[in-house]
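Table S2 (text version). Query chain:
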Amino acid sequence: MKAVLMTAPGNPEVLQLCEIPNPLPPQNTELLVRLKAAGVNPIDTKLRDRGTFYPDKMPAILGCDGAGVVEAVGTAVKRFRVGDEVYFCNGGIGDHQGNYAEFTTVDERFVAAKPKSASFVEAAAAPLVLITAWEALYERGRLQPGEKVLIHAGAGGVGHVAIQLAKLKGADVCTTISSQEKADFVKNLGADYTINYKENDFVKAVLDWTNGGVDLAFDTVGGTTFEKTFPAVRIYGDIVTILQPSAETNWKVARQRNLRISLELMLTPMLEGMVEAQAHHGEILAECAKWMDEGKLKICVNQTFGLEEVAKAHQLLEAGSIMGKVVIVNS
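Corresponding structure-token output:
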């Protein structure tokens, strides 16, 4: 099969299209999936640049998100059969093979049926960002109907689905953006209030919009944005970040406001071998597929590339400021 191999950490050019053997036949509860598309996420570019979580297992095939057609099933598979269309987040962090390839294997417990209304490209763009936003808002942040939420970078991959998930929970959503084009984009997704952080102090804007701060802030940017967000959250409120806080973070305002700080890393089940937790990811995707088919949730794809163009996809993502997702398509 064709696959994109990463032989060493480095710039996008370390990703090379190669011909390698097909995966071994699926065992027990595994599915063999013919991949139609693979999502590209910031974690992919970081692992390519810095090295994978398993540097002793090189070369690696990156790509956590995949969508495709079941080609074969293991002897213990119960939920899927050959020909089923599926989507999932599995592999691609340096241990199990990722999805920049023509085929892969994945445990059926981690998989959901592809939304009928979504293309393979849209489905492949969805899993990591859906799971991340779901866990951050619903599980870490304990979002409730009627609450007010601040979502940073609402036009981005995670941000644009977080807006929709927050609205589906019945929350009021404000989000930071950097242009009128992005403001229009997020308003079409349901955002109630937009803040151009390049032109306005987002903390003042949030405090003007609320009575003392949002109930929940979701940080998808990191760096100084995380600390700057503390005063925009109400006393006893929540802030969830998907980035590692800096060692220089000043926690004084967060402590004074008695904020509950949560960290979100949807890769934890894969990293720790937590099968039941990763099976929960499959359940999240199944629920989101229903919403997508009901027209309540959509995934916005910015651009697609062929398997031989993965390096270009990484370059685009690293350039920053794109709206929606980037996807690799198998011809």
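Notes on Table S2: The longest strand covers residues 30-40. The chain has a mean pLDDT of 97.
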